[in-house]
Amino acid sequence: MKDRTKKEIRDYFFIIVGTVMLTFGVYFFKIPNGFATGCVSGIGTILGKITPNVSPGSWIMIINVVLLLLGFAFLGKQNGIRTVFCSLLFSFLTYALEFVMPLSKPLTDQPLLELVYAMLLTAFGSAIIFNTGASSGGTDIAALILRKYTSWDVGKALLVIDFFVAASTFVVFNVKAGLFSMAGLFAKAFLVDSIIDNIQSCKYFVVITDKSEEINAYITKELKHSSTITEAMGGYSGEGKVMIHTVCKRIEAIRLRRHIKEIDPHSFVIITTTSEIIGRGFRSV
Asked: Distance (Å, rounded) from C-alpha 12 to C-alpha 221?
């Protein structure tokens, strides 16, 4: 119970950090430049330009609340308390920043630089949020509703929607904003998945050694991970060997590699990177 509480606190800490990064990327870099790369923030940026009396932050809050209500109506508890928390926090922070730090123009006169920061902050923020099992709501909820009640390919449907949102900036703002928005849309498609893979990446070790007991003891007692041990025979030497299979997180991999070489300098070690480990000590199914 205590470990579960610690995990919940840690997850919500990362949700808040990710949401703050997402909000800063949208408010300080996307909205002032008219970068609409899809999602609710893009729709809010465009509607805020069309309706001067209603700010982008207000539109983002309105749309997110409406989508959350639709999510509860059509999806029930599947919507998830973390997604609700993240969506409302994102909406509130964006709306609050309009009063605390109002912006009437971009921070710099370098739109390409601002696009880079807009994409990096939102991609890192979204990746951190997704890694906790939450999402920022918005069009993700619309996607879940589509998946439940239609046979549409949700990924393609969202890509089409994001494309039209980005394309509309050519009309609502100008050609420059439109071109930057389209560039940002394509960059976003690769950035988030890439960052998530890096956050989740672990190391898979295959250790062929004569000192399996000492190495296995370090893995189980010091790193607190399990291992799988198999008998093997050298194809060239014909000598019997032991193979130890284990997985660990990247920061632990450095320690394990160093200790393996200290225990058995003649060991043969194969290390590969994987972005998805399911099981005790890593991710649940």
From this structure: 30
pLDDT 10s digits, 114-141: 988 988 888 888 888 877 767 777 777 7
Joined together, the tokens standing for residue 251 give 């920061």
pLDDT value of residue 24: 94
Backbone angles phi, psi at 137, to 5 degrees: 75, -135
Q: Which of 199, 226, 251 is the last residue of a domain?
A: 199
d(CA 268, CA 42): 52
- What single string gives the DSSP state of each residue in 136-160? --THHHHHHHHHHH----HHHHHHH
Check whether residue 246 and residue 107 sit in a common domain.
no
pTM of the model: 0.71
DSSP code, position 283: B
Q: Look up residue 255 and give its two tokens.
A: 């320690």
CATH of the domain at 252: 3.30.70.120
